[in-house]
Amino acid sequence: MRIKIINPNTTLSMTAKIGAAARAVAGPGTEVLAVSPASGPATIEGHYDEAMACLGLLEEVRKGESEGVDAYVIACFGDPGLDAAREIARGPVLGVAEAAMRSASYLATGFSVVTTLQRTVVIAEHLVDKYGVRGQCRRVRACELPVAALEDDGAAAYQTILAECQRALAEDGCGAIVLGCAGMADLCERLQAALGVPVIDGVVAATATAEALLRAGLRTSKRGDYAPPRPKAYKGLVCPFAPG
Amino acid sequence: MRIKIINPNTTLSMTAKIGAAARAVAGPGTEVLAVSPASGPATIEGHYDEAMACLGLLEEVRKGESEGVDAYVIACFGDPGLDAAREIARGPVLGVAEAAMRSASYLATGFSVVTTLQRTVVIAEHLVDKYGVRGQCRRVRACELPVAALEDDGAAAYQTILAECQRALAEDGCGAIVLGCAGMADLCERLQAALGVPVIDGVVAATATAEALLRAGLRTSKRGDYAPPRPKAYKGLVCPFAPG
Amino acid sequence: MRIKIINPNTTLSMTAKIGAAARAVAGPGTEVLAVSPASGPATIEGHYDEAMACLGLLEEVRKGESEGVDAYVIACFGDPGLDAAREIARGPVLGVAEAAMRSASYLATGFSVVTTLQRTVVIAEHLVDKYGVRGQCRRVRACELPVAALEDDGAAAYQTILAECQRALAEDGCGAIVLGCAGMADLCERLQAALGVPVIDGVVAATATAEALLRAGLRTSKRGDYAPPRPKAYKGLVCPFAPG
Amino acid sequence: MRIKIINPNTTLSMTAKIGAAARAVAGPGTEVLAVSPASGPATIEGHYDEAMACLGLLEEVRKGESEGVDAYVIACFGDPGLDAAREIARGPVLGVAEAAMRSASYLATGFSVVTTLQRTVVIAEHLVDKYGVRGQCRRVRACELPVAALEDDGAAAYQTILAECQRALAEDGCGAIVLGCAGMADLCERLQAALGVPVIDGVVAATATAEALLRAGLRTSKRGDYAPPRPKAYKGLVCPFAPG
Amino acid sequence: MRIKIINPNTTLSMTAKIGAAARAVAGPGTEVLAVSPASGPATIEGHYDEAMACLGLLEEVRKGESEGVDAYVIACFGDPGLDAAREIARGPVLGVAEAAMRSASYLATGFSVVTTLQRTVVIAEHLVDKYGVRGQCRRVRACELPVAALEDDGAAAYQTILAECQRALAEDGCGAIVLGCAGMADLCERLQAALGVPVIDGVVAATATAEALLRAGLRTSKRGDYAPPRPKAYKGLVCPFAPG
Amino acid sequence: MRIKIINPNTTLSMTAKIGAAARAVAGPGTEVLAVSPASGPATIEGHYDEAMACLGLLEEVRKGESEGVDAYVIACFGDPGLDAAREIARGPVLGVAEAAMRSASYLATGFSVVTTLQRTVVIAEHLVDKYGVRGQCRRVRACELPVAALEDDGAAAYQTILAECQRALAEDGCGAIVLGCAGMADLCERLQAALGVPVIDGVVAATATAEALLRAGLRTSKRGDYAPPRPKAYKGLVCPFAPG
């Protein structure tokens, strides 16, 4: 099977890390494609960045449909464009926040999220509500690291994140940690070893879950709001992306 | 004061109707600009259309900031791009669904939403949860009218919508109707007269509320996640829209 | 249009302040009546005071109906008698807590309420649930000021409230402040200037929103539980207030 | 022990029925006082009636404190004035809706409420939320009986209520019925015999629960918002009821 | 009437204390049986202990049905086996957590729970949600006392619990305390005297409430999921417990 | 890896079907053990059956720990004993209801559950709340088939279930079906083909998800309430199952 990981952040070093994490968890017969769109923000750190990332991200899903892609992972913790992507994909589409938070729910009765900037905390909290894990999510914590800092100085970033995870375990009454940025994928294993509790990276969780859904013969429902978009004219810059 | 109504549907006859509804409610000193973006879907009828509408819509907000616009209304019942728009606007930005549902809450302990296609019902229901009106919203009803039908044959559309509103009053235990599409703005007054209960059109509600917020001296908070986007590079098609 | 602001606290200096705040926000063609009922507590600081305030408050609504009043504002943060008032009014009736909290929701993804006494915090929290803003309201904070202190020594009160607002911004992750007492109406502008975030006073928010609803042609629904009370006999002291 | 049942409806035949129901359930050493206030609506069928009932009702609590009353029951399904009454009572104060709905929760995983007029359904639904029984309450049903009809023609009322209860059992998936008006107290036993499921009358449930709390040595907390009202001046008609 | 208190902890000194507390609250005509099952954990301190306690506990209910028992109390704060017990009992079955938390809701708008070990906090929090008291329960607090410590050194345990209750009152904004372990039943009265707020022990609350329900003529609904279990074969160790 | 599927129903033909479904979805390197406990009900159709199933079920987990089992699936839609099992297992433990409902959430914005007997509907609804999928679960439907009927006459059962699924799609506004009994595992593929929407069987979903978690290097958290049970004495029949 072929799973396409789309990192809507257009920082390619981050995409490479994400691809490596996905490949490490994928089963033997699974091909992992890890890409960044041709269009989009270098990093995604707010509502505006998210909205602007959708065009490129959705184009990668559209291309995937003719590349024989079986499932997609959107590798940004705000899960931008998720519902839209499901309209145009036949196979499952998973967001990394959704997959990480649901996976954590199998492993502990409470988890905390450790993310990058404070301003993205609200985005994660809205997803906590959307995905119905308010009862499990003890707290969403920021460590005031810009996404780019994860690329620039991984070692410093690791120490900052580790410290925040330790505070989470000490103060939040949680039994697991969810990493709140796809760019932390390469730190997951070390953090889990250091902390002694499950540390869930969404890229890994989403890739493994996408495989699981495919193996179970499950695809996106085409009955209801995930049916293909109604054909219509689009105008201006988005004209080439009109549903046919 | 200057209020810009952005209809992210790029069907100009719809924009004209919306502008007329907004102007009719605006106070004497208020200038209403009603526009459709240069880029976007002819009509918005699903998650994908919404995502694709954001780019043009946000560009209109960005332009508005240099046009002396004091407040914005996003005239599509899914409230696409609302949080993103608030990051780049100084003044208030209102979605029509948000304004309509909150306005209805002042007038009745229960309202029903009457919208276009069944596939958009989920979008409205998610907004019901987001805006905390689950206790007031008795039901979201579709009348299986495509958005374009509101333009093509207004008379037929009126009858279909009226019938659905009557079913809502008979079956849902509601005391008010919220119109679930900005393209119904021109039908609001007639429906209210025919039904004898408050009928709330979001364009009217949002325009009037935006004026109210401005008169109260209130602007979008720039502390937290509505602070201006962090400056960064954007790539490809969205490159011109990078936050400066 | 004519809007009647009813301050159920029978402290007239407070009513004067409230009237001034309402007049400052009202549009040119709007007449603001600001009154305290003939009957009621000097200040409202608990469930009992609220219940005892209703009789006088509702009588002011009843009189308003024959005075050509178009809309009403109940100027006490517990929104006492709100549903009852809507039964006997044709036009919109707004509570200041309701209007303030809903207005704040347009401006920030999170707000905190700063109110007077700790014992009224529960009242505000119940309204947070009733109005569906649990997801936006980060915290309700008391500064242990009796309502009368707002009249007696405004300068000291201002400092106390300012300090609590600053704690809210520092600790609660909120982007806006809602003032939890109508008697703080005169401090709103100074607080907003000092804090640099939206500070929402309910008197201002409710007056402006009432005007907006009127301009939008919206009135209280008379279908359902806001229909006029059923005619019946009342006994004893309340006999003169029986619905006719 | 001495329990005072206050029927805020000032229809004395109803108070007599309520008193009989309370006495039938009370233990041997318990004295039941059943009264209607000197002031208030003949029947309570809406928000306005409720608000107007509070003055008389609270006066009965105030008098009770000097009559050696140990606990109070507010015998109207909207539980008017409940929080206010708790401020001025030392012993427990129970509303019949609260007691009925909580008692039902011990006996079935789902119950339906059968009440009088459709316009009071919203009042009951708000209490369902306030008391946290949304998960248990399958539906609130009206049988369009005015409260007075329960007094005027008990036999006809019985048949109407029975039929609605049967519909509830057939359609709602409930295992118990809560009677939504204190004036139905005399029908409870017959309905339970006819229906074969628990039928909970609030007067009976509240009286029995009040006794239980007293026997357990429990009183209203005087820490927090149920502390006695702060002393202050009251003006006009309510002047005699000012907290001392 | 005959009420059977089943302490699923098989520590008999604890059962004796529990029986004494129940007898002290029971009315004159009420016989209290206090037992521990023949089978089960010495103390219950987690999900596994709870699951393992059910067999013995349910057997005591089954025996009760032929002993003329009118109502049951499950005396362990996790309310293990409650729904199952209701299937096989004719009379009411009450859990101590359920009864304590609902009783507290009549007395204060907020309570905190003080329980034994941190690992049982999640169990109590799940019950807070199940019983719909999330709005009332300010916090669940552990004092890191194993259940056995309540038996071994009551004086030390008392001091530890008292201190935690005091912290709850100081920090949680609560007006009442719920004791989170049936083994604290003997400390309730002293704690209440020391703290000056209602302190609710579940054994006392459940016994008194069971009596109240019986006096009100109420039994477990046999319509729906509390109907007797369907007859069927059981295998192995549980074979003797198959529903007949 | 080695995954143990425990069917707590002790009907071996059902266990065989469940094992086949699990093996069909498992990856090449995965060994599936499918067992029924030595002790337990022939079928599980209520709270009592569930409680009585736990002993045997948990013993199978305990044995699994010394058999090198990496993950467990509890193959009964009520997810009995799930939290208890997680205390004694090192690897992930998944309930079929949990896995099915979470998997459905990736594929459609709304699903309906089709289960066996009406009396088990409440059990499923409680899980809907526990797992936070109230927003996705449109309805839980029973088709009044006893579990044994799935074994006795599969063809008739298929028709009954198919008809109920068709009603769900026609009436509930759902885009996917969750099968509400592990004994329906063999019908899943045919139903999905017939209905044209995702049909999720929990055995398949849980087995695939368990593999995914293992491949992602995730295990049950041992910090908090899933830590191993505290060592203590057990009495009577459960004595051999005491935590060591």
Automatic annotation (TrEMBL), chains A, B, C, D, E, F:
It catalyses: D-5-benzylhydantoin = L-5-benzylhydantoin; a D-5-monosubstituted hydantoin = a L-5-monosubstituted hydantoin; D-5-isobutylhydantoin = L-5-isobutylhydantoin. GO terms for molecular function: amino-acid racemase activity; hydantoin racemase activity. Its EC number is 5.1.99.5. It is an enzyme of class 5 (isomerase). Pfam families: Asp_Glu_race (PF01177). Belongs to the HyuE racemase family. PANTHER family: PROTEIN DCG1. This is Hydantoin racemase.
